[in-house]
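User: quick one - fold this with flavin-adenine dinucleotide bound?
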Amino acid sequence: MAELDADVIVVGAGVSGLAAARALALGGASVVVLEARDRIGGRTWTDSAIGVPVDLGASWIHGIDGNPLWSLAAAFGIDTVEFTVGSFQFDGRPIAWHGPSGARLSPDAAASFVADLHTVDAALAHVVASAPPPSTYAAAIDTVLRSLGWAGDRAARIREYAAHRSEDLCGAPVTVLDAHGLDEEHVPGDEVVFPGGYGQYAAALADGLDIRLSSVVRSVTQSEAGVEVGLADGSTHTAGNVVVTVPLGVLQAGDVTFTPPLDAPVAGAMGRLGMGVYDKVFLRFPDRFWGDDWVIRQQGSAGVDWHSWYDMSRVTGEPVLAALVGGAGARRLETLPDAMVVDEGLAALRRMFGPTVPAPEGCRITRWAADPFARGSYSYLHVRASTHDHDLLGTPSGRVQLAGEATWGDDPATVHGALLSGLRAASRLLGHEVQPDVLSAPSTLGA
Ligand SMILES: Cc1cc2nc3c(=O)[nH]c(=O)nc-3n(C[C@H](O)[C@H](O)[C@H](O)COP(=O)(O)OP(=O)(O)OC[C@H]3O[C@@H](n4cnc5c(N)ncnc54)[C@H](O)[C@@H]3O)c2cc1C
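Assistant: Sure. Structure tokens for the protein plus flavin-adenine dinucleotide:
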């Protein structure tokens, strides 16, 4: 291999790749970032097509206590709004619960349902801890309901809540999610969102880096001399090491080939973990017609796909509602044209708020599963996987290591997990631990 193009090639300019590249460059390495799309940020993507910034990918910092994104927000000058309910909590910002008929639950009925959720959660922790593998989250919920002796509508409401929790937080049907798949969902501290969008992190992290957009990587070949990365246009780049941060769905589809193949523990984990789907439907209305609650939830069969609406006016002041849809519902909606999705969403809102709900003036709808550079929304612990698989996926194979949310066992499927996985990859290559605050240090990168 002739002279190398860089010390390190980073594949992917999402938060993990940008954090890795920034840490490496600040540590003195020469770094080239190869990104398939014509934009940076990956699954953090702030878009203003409906006239106000909305986050098409990640929205929340899931728990600010001890979270590196929280201190980086201050360092980067990123404004936040507290919006504690993104982890499907029932005790954060106010939620309007609507029963199966569409009518809003009375305060007593809502309080009784929330008390039931607390009771189940308290029992669930023990059941999950003692569940013999392989056990699904659905089976753990059933065990709890049996032990409580609950049946009929009371049990049905709990089962459907658990299903929505699994579909939203993991993008996965509750029947294939491992019982431990939501272990890490305890959120320390408030949750916050960004009026100016999550994209501000990617912009700050990318400052001064050598990022080559529209560079679709197809192959990674390592030898004793280094690594050769092949692009879809036939060109190649060489480096001493490579950090590959493409999403798990892209890896599982075989869109990037590795020669020699990745080591067995990495390949095994890749095959066992799941890639979930979670999409967003933003509807911009002429005015706010809904009440003072921050979230609106529909119970029963009417809420199978349209169960949660988030009031975005709390974030930007503009009358926008966001329906968040995961799992099978998201996969089904991805097959429909925008107009049909909007019609379904409007019907769901009219069931709760009556026929006077106006048609939206604008819409923005995501299709993360259909996106060839995501092939899903985030990774999850499939029942066939082990709780070690996320971290195994990040084990180096010679000069190649994977990073990204799917490789971070403590908090997969999050932006902070992605960031920390990128720092772990950089730390290994630099030979010393890189702390997150390094990323906001004044620098002369690119000068
Ligand atoms: C709808 C949705 C909502 C979410 N909500 C939250 C939330 O509220 N809070 C939270 O913490 N997390 C949330 N997440 C998860 C979070 O967005 C991700 O965990 C995180 O952004 C992943 O970062 P990453 O760097 O690992 O991957 P990515 O951001 O996906 O970066 C990978 C990069 O690789 C590029 N790439 C792919 N294939 C190739 C190729 N062949 N060649 C070159 N480049 C390639 C991609 O274009 C991309 O830029 C959400 C995700 C989605 C989709």
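One thing worth noting: The mean pLDDT is 97.
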